[in-house]
């Protein structure tokens, strides 16, 4: 992956988060603590304020991940941070920039999220958008653009599927049955990350 | 939203400036990392106690920094756990050579950020870090497959008792043991009459009608388990005591009873509720050995109340009575 | 109206039951007369300090009963001064043979009820009673022809300092003198973001829109002098400090700075405001020697803040630092 | 004055206060602290709960005054209490029950209120209703019923006249100019006392 692409991805994601911060916070108000939008926005503003001088995409995304860890807090900070750190780790040493590599990087990120947060499918978390997205990418490795758009489509479906779920992880789990009927904020922001990727990384 | 603030982005950092100005004798503040530190720390040879979490629960945790309680508190954004950098900075600052204990409330974010910080502090500086995770809220159904219970009121009692034990020179293993035991023997239940407004969100997290209350709330303005018609104080006392006693047997040993205002409930009502709760406890055969009434672990301006019972023993009571000198809790000196 | 109470008629008496249950070690309560008493009183040879007023200002006054502060507090109905019978009962109960000082906030009702009680106590038992009337609220235009200023925040500082002086064995004349001096050297100003609801009234005393605040409020949920657009913390600090400094020169001697939450304003905002106020004071050349931040003289659940400055001297500072052991204020023991 | 009349007066006043408690509290909410209705109601309920066994009207009204002092608190407790104590004092030894005696008793009550509360005419207090009522009674001493009804009429006028006043005594004085435009609660309850008197004492 080229450095400029990685930077365009983060810039696009930051802009999208900023536009959707109120929506994300509002979703979090319903089943959480009303801060997912401001958390992500604070973090992504710090990411785009980073120096633009990096040797490659991997070192840039690593720094972006550390920045999220250092500025976001809450559940999403370590999770998004770990995602980018692992994503960057999978890029390191990659020479070709194809759909295979892309899917591998997303898979690495997903696994970081799972190992940090211990959530599984159906727990009503960002994993429910991220996991189907990664699986769809892995099934579409002929073309990078197609890979990313099918990842996005699967992520959207995964996000929508969180609405009826009863949360078992994160703050929403405290609500028990009352968490059903609300879309998960973290799954929603993952789709924004996928959208930004589809727009910038192909 | 009406708040006495300048801008939603600077609430926490400006409150820390005020805290430092108000308590220059007892506190030192690392503003870059938003860490409230004991003025006379690190205390050499003493285990350092670090807690922290989202802001908006004042006086917890920053108000509990001082002799006989915490060595440092990390202030996250309002209702958002602190980041590992802050926790690492606190851990380094309080290390007196005897290791550091992290006191963490059981929220996904808090647990993950403290974990990352502990990993980094151990890797970078070789500081021995242990952690205790407080999860005492009986409103949350607990299971192996969920995030577990929230950490609420027991945290205050734990910080006081373990703080006294650390001050007395107990080592990290002993502190971890007693902290874990306290966490296992404390139970809490809360209710709210109103929600509260996170500054950055600008409107209340949930809405309650004038004849409704919310039972089983946490400390982040989040809705609870059940919305009920507004109850009398006597009924409300039952609703708080009953699930706590159903979860753990509190008879047969001395109990610390902590009735906590959520921020917007006046002390007049808190005392009235304490009286109602004391009646129910007496009828249930629970012996209250110590009590604490006041707004100590709050949700901004939320109106409501929580009850925490801690099954104590003589050692814990002695530590409870030991001197403490913090802005939020002070006695014996 | 949503409150954790059983019935609007029993709020005060039930809160006193809870207070007694929560502080059996320090307080004794005469429930028939609604008087909160120091457990170890009357202290023989010590001047008895009696205060009181309407309820709804907790922890004031009942929470300030104990070693180093008040000997008794009379709890009136919410926001209604106590009656002479209560004040007489308190006066008798605390009389240790050295006379009794009444600490009265300057409200027509309080002044008249304390006066009647003092007349009766003197006539019936020959107890020597002196009174100090606190009138420190600069929001009220003072004149020979009006009821004068309200008594607000200075009362808390006065009760602490005079309480320490009484504990130190000073006589009634000396206490009356220092109390009068403190009342003359304290000034306060308050603002509110919301009103509050007197239980018996059932609805808020006044209504404020979401973009309005009320400047110059007292402590009874009454409207203030001026309704203003909601201000920033920095502006609000100016609005509080300026009229206080305009009324009395606070430079040239040490000052006790007391930032008080009205009941519904979280500590986070109180600290933030303390920081803003400290900045303004520094710029104005005022030297803050001691500070107090918290909700100590409240108006039920009102959101808002008051500032009190007391021009102190070394004697007052020493008395301020002296040990105090009450539910609401404790240090040094 | 006969004991039964004095008791009927207090019973009537208690009932009227109870019916008007919300109104009085509401007036007090506007320029005071929202308790005048509940204060007066608490006191008058205690008065009508008194034993009915008294040697004469004077001793009964004295006890009623003490009861108000002991149960009402606030400004109105000492003021209404002192009013009744002085009123009762003026009855003591009176043998005839005519308009002269009635006016004298009200005058004594008024003077008690003034000496206790130090308010003068125009300060926007109960004195502004009580003083013109007493003066009107003193001017109509030919007939007891006429004496009381003219006292009432003058009291009503006095009460109405409090509306534009700027308060100089009591809590309303803290409002300064903002106290203008609101009827004084204490002046309002004084008219209820006059109404009850006109209904029961002639
Ligand atoms: N254990 C977990 N594993 C994966 N994702 C999680 C986990 N816990 C929470 N999340 C995600 O984090 C989101 C909430 O993030 P945020 O509101 O920023 O943090 P917090 O819950 O600490 O306030 C949830 O919507 C959910 O998608
Ligand atoms: N100094 C005074 N002299 C005469 N009447 C007064 C005085 N101060 C207050 N009042 C009367 O008392 C009324 C208020 O009574 P109440 O609300 O029961 O007491 P408080 O003001 O203590 O709450 C006022 O409306 C006024 O008529
Ligand atoms: Mg959240
Ligand atoms: Mg959060
Ligand atoms: Mg009153
Ligand atoms: Mg009143």
Description:
The complex is a heterotetramer, with 2 copies of chain A (202 residues) and 2 copies of chain B (333 residues). With 202 residues, chain A is mostly helical. Chain A has one domain: Serine Threonine Protein Phosphatase 5, Tetratricopeptide repeat (Alpha Horseshoe). Chain A is 68% helix and 0% strand. Chain A is globular, with a radius of gyration of 16 Å. The N and C termini of chain A lie close together (10 Å). Chain B is of the alpha/beta class and 333 residues long. Chain B has 2 domains: 12-134, Rossmann fold (3-Layer(aba) Sandwich); 186-319, Hypothetical Protein Tm841, Chain: A,domain 3, CATH 3.30.1180. In chain B, 33% of the residues lie in helices and 23% in strands. Chain B is built from 8 helices and 14 strands. A 6-stranded mixed β-sheet of chain B has the order 1-2-4-3-5-6, sandwiched between helices. In chain B, strands 9-8-7-12-10-11 form a 6-stranded mixed β-sheet. In chain B, a hairpin with a 4-residue loop joins strand 1 and strand 2 (35-38). In chain B, helix 4 (154-167) runs antiparallel to helix 5, helix 4 (154-167) packs across helix 8 (314-321) and helix 6 crosses helix 7. The radius of gyration of chain B is 19 Å and the shape is globular. Chains in contact: A-B, B-C, C-D. Chains A and B meet through helix 2, helix 3 and helix 4 of A and strand 4 and helix 3 of B.
């Amino acid at each position: 992956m080229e450095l400029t692409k990685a930077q365009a991805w983060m810039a696009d994601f930051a802009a999208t988060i900023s536009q959707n911060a109120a929506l994300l916070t509002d979703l979090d108000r319903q089943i959480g603590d009303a801060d997912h939008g401001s958390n992500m926005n604070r973090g992504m503003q710090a990411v785009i304020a980073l120096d633009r001088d990096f040797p490659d995409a991997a070192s840039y995304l690593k720094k972006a991940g550390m920045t999220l860890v250092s500025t976001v807090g809450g559940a999403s900070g370590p999770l998004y941070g770990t995602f980018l750190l692992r994503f960057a780790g999978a890029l390191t040493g990659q020479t070709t920039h194809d759909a295979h590599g892309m899917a591998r990087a997303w898979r690495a990120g997903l696994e970081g999220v799972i190992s940090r947060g211990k959530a599984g499918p159906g727990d009503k978390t960002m994993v429910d958008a991220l996991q189907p997205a990664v699986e769809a990418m892995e099934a579409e490795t002929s073309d990078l653009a197609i890979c990313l758009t099918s990842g996005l489509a699967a992520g959207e479906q995964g996000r929508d599927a969180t609405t009826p779920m009863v949360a078992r992880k994160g703050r929403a789990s405290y609500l028990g049955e009352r968490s059903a009927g609300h879309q998960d904020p973290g799954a929603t922001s993952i789709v924004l990350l996928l959208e930004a990727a589809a727009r910038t990384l192909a | 939203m009406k708040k006495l603030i300048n801008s939603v982005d600077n609430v926490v950092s400006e409150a820390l400036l005020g805290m430092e100005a108000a308590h220059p004798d007892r506190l030192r503040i690392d503003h870059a990392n938003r860490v409230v530190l004991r003025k006379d720390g690190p205390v050499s040879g003493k285990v350092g106690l670090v807690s922290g979490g989202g802001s908006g629960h004042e006086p917890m945790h920053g108000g509990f920094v001082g002799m006989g309680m915490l060595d440092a508190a990390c202030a996250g954004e309002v209702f958002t756990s602190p980041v590992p950098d802050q926790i690492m900075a606190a851990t380094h600052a309080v290390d007196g050579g005897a290791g550091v204990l992290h006191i963490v409330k059981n929220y996904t974010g808090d647990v993950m950020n403290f974990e990352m910080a502990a990993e980094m502090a151990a890797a970078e500086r070789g500081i021995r870090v242990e952690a205790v995770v407080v999860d005492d809220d009986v409103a949350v159904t607990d299971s192996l497959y969920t995030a577990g219970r929230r950490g609420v009121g027991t945290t205050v009692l734990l910080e006081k008792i373990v703080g006294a034990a650390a001050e007395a020179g107990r080592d990290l293993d002993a502190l971890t043991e007693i902290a874990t035991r306290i966490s296992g023997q404390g139970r809490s239940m809360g209710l709210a009459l109103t929600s509260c407004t996170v500054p950055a969100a600008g409107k209340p997290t949930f809405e309650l009608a004038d004849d409704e209350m919310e039972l089983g709330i946490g400390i982040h303005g989040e809705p609870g388990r059940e919305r009920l018609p507004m109850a009398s104080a006597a009924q409300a006392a039952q609703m708080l005591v009953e699930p706590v006693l159903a979860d753990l047997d509190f008879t047969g040993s001395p109990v610390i009873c902590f009735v906590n205002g959520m921020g917007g409930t006046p002390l007049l009502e808190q005392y009235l509720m304490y009286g109602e709760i004391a009646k129910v406890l007496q009828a249930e055969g629970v012996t209250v050995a110590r009590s604490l009434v006041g707004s100590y672990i709050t949700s901004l301006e939320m109106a409501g109340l929580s009850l925490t019972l801690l099954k104590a023993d003589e050692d814990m009571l002695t530590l409870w009575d030991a001197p403490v000198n913090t802005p939020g809790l002070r006695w014996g000196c």
